[in-house]
Amino acid sequence: METGTSRVKRGMAEMQKGGVIMDVMNAEQAKIAEAAGAVAVMALERVPSDIRAAGGVARMADPTIVEEVTKVVSIPVMAKARIGHYVEAKVLESMGVDYIDESEVLTPADEVFHINKNEFTIPFVCGAKDLGEALRRIQEGASMIRTKGEPGTGNVVEAVRHLRLIHGQIRRVSSLSKDELFNEAKVLGVNYDLLVQVAEAGKLPVVNFAAGGVATPADAALMMHLGAEGVFVGSGIFKSDNPEKFARAIVEATTHYTDYKLITEVSKNLGTPMKGIDIKTLSGFDRMQDRSI
Amino acid sequence: MKIGVLALQGAVAEHIRGLEAAGAEAVAVKRVEELDSLDGLVIPGGESTTIGKLMRKYDFIDPIRKFSAEGKPLFGTCAGLIVLADRIEGQDDAHLELMDMTVQRNAFGRQRESFETDLDIKGIDEPIRAVFIRAPLIKEVGAGVDVLSTYKDEIVAARQNNLLACSFHPELTDDYRLHAYFVDMAREAAASRV
């Protein structure tokens, strides 16, 4: 009997496919998310848009919030640790969190090194803007990838950019010969064998979700259409007028992302979605996606 | 043999690969009317609460019960096992209520307790590598249920006539003998319908 094998950790993400993972800040929101059909909840102190508004240093949530959420739902509970913050991740593991997001939404604890995720029994999800970043995270032990997008903006444009880029790069490496792949591995800063594996399979060796700016049912369906295997919705749900209805609508649109009549129906009278931010107005450290490479 | 994989949420592509490797034609099923042309149906691993809610939302419950009543085989893995069960510990309602068994969800604990191990399965010659992820257990079965496998004296695979269920994920390895076993069930059921 073996725990924490790569098959067990990656397999956990496989079971989330086609689903929606929702950010929640307390037990009540977690219950709403579960009742709406979320496949997991991400327990947080503040959703990304509030982190953005508050400024300052964003850290791992108070363990009490994670504990409260864990008590009230039977679906998996995820939580975020700062990039490179080994101890926050160990604390979350010891609490029995099911998945850790080593996340650029929080202020990085290390601007060079990520956590060696291979050492952990529980799986990690990490953000990526491109194929090189995705594969570096997988080398470090990430069992699931998500696009970084631009969290807390309610603007899907960056998630679209990242997903298209990753898929475009995979298609490109699939067309390269073995000798060209040696150079490509160097250019991307990734392990050659892992790159060959991706080139041959035509896909990442782990599940890839969309995240960072998904605000409406149509946004979620768009990411599925572009080849995401599921979606994370952060501020979009609990910053909308009617979280319950919004959450249900996003779940349905994700399941039936090619059924436009259904997406029409679930999009009716949802109230105002979160306000949203034009990415061009963000610069420097406000661009969370640039916090790690 | 044409086998469907219920594709409301979960590990669909892996089951399709397994069924194809076992010599069947496999399709993802998102709509009730797609059940009509099938010889068997897999209910995959995923989140049972999500799959259960979406099954109700899109009125899958009665059509799948009818599918089963026609003798067509169903195979539930992990969340799919929970969906097939008559009784779920700690809950008033179950989902399809087809298999005479009581299941316990997340019976091994949280994700850090998830594991893989070698298992003997009745009807399959050599042990199979079984991956358990936040897996359920079958706590008790009725007289008509045949126990196919146990782990530490707890039931992890069972069959009741045309219904097959396991706690673990045969779709996460490259060993598709359990898929082949299910395709054989579908073949026998199709032969007896003619």
TrEMBL record, chain A:
Pathway: Cofactor biosynthesis; pyridoxal 5'-phosphate biosynthesis. Pfam families: SOR_SNZ. Residues 6-211 form the PdxS/SNZ N-terminal domain. Its EC number is 4.3.3.6. Gene3D superfamilies: Aldolase class I. SUPFAM superfamilies: Ribulose-phoshate binding barrel (SSF51366). It catalyses: aldehydo-D-ribose 5-phosphate + D-glyceraldehyde 3-phosphate + L-glutamine = pyridoxal 5'-phosphate + L-glutamate + phosphate + 3 H2O + H(+). D-glyceraldehyde 3-phosphate binds at residue 164. GO terms for molecular function: lyase activity. In the presence of PdxT, forms a dodecamer of heterodimers. Belongs to the PdxS/SNZ family. This is Pyridoxal 5'-phosphate synthase subunit PdxS. It comes from Paenibacillus terricola. The gene is pdxS.
UniProtKB/TrEMBL annotation, chain B:
L-glutamine binds at residues 46-48, 105, 133-134. Pathway: Cofactor biosynthesis; pyridoxal 5'-phosphate biosynthesis. SUPFAM superfamilies: Class I glutamine amidotransferase-like. CDD domains: GATase1_PB (cd01749). It catalyses: aldehydo-D-ribose 5-phosphate + D-glyceraldehyde 3-phosphate + L-glutamine = pyridoxal 5'-phosphate + L-glutamate + phosphate + 3 H2O + H(+); L-glutamine + H2O = L-glutamate + NH4(+). Signal peptide: none annotated. The active site is at 78 (nucleophile), 169 (charge relay system), 171 (charge relay system). Its EC number is 4.3.3.6, 3.5.1.2. It comes from the Bacteria. Keywords: Glutamine amidotransferase, Hydrolase, Lyase, Pyridoxal phosphate. The keyword Hydrolase applies. HAMAP family: PdxT. Catalyzes the hydrolysis of glutamine to glutamate and ammonia as part of the biosynthesis of pyridoxal 5'-phosphate. The resulting ammonia molecule is channeled to the active site of PdxS. PANTHER family: PYRIDOXAL 5'-PHOSPHATE SYNTHASE SUBUNIT SNO, PYRIDOXAL 5'-PHOSPHATE SYNTHASE SUBUNIT SNO1-RELATED. In the presence of PdxS, forms a dodecamer of heterodimers. Only shows activity in the heterodimer. Belongs to the glutaminase PdxT/SNO family. This is Pyridoxal 5'-phosphate synthase subunit PdxT. It comes from Paenibacillus terricola. The lineage of its organism: Bacteria, Bacillati, Bacillota, Bacilli, Bacillales. The gene is pdxT.
